[in-house]
Amino acid sequence: MSDHRGTRRLPVIRGQVQCTPDKVVSIDLCGFCVHSALVVVGGEEVPSPARAYCSRCRVTSGVVDMAKVEAVVCDDVRGEGFRSITSIIS
After folding, report:
1. Distance between CA atoms of 3 and 10, rounded to whole angstroms?
2. What does pTM read for this prediction?
3. All structural domains of the chain with their residue ranges
4. Which SS3 state, helix, strand or coil, does residue 87 take?
5. Secondary structure of residue 56 in the 3-state scheme
6. Are the C-beta atoms of 52 and 61 separated by less than 8 Å?
7. What is the pLDDT along the chain (90 residues), one digit of tens a residue?
8. Diameter of the chain by CA atoms?
């Protein structure tokens, strides 16, 4: 679990995360998911690439190599699963 209120810390296992109890997705999708708040790289939490696309949030510190992500801090508390950031920015 994450220390962030209302989030889940999802470990990356062989390039995939357990998005919902019944769905495993590629870590690459997390980089484009509205629920992906932070990613863990080298033990440090950094803003998810998805937040760079959000005009309200533009908080990314740079390019994140999703292949190096160890975990995702996900704010999907309703269990919706992957939702593309393009549904918000389009």
Report:
1. 12
2. 0.81
3. 8-77
4. helix
5. coil
6. no
7. 445 778 999 999 999 999 999 999 999 999 999 999 999 999 999 989 887 766 555 555 567 899 999 999 999 989 999 999 887 755
8. 33
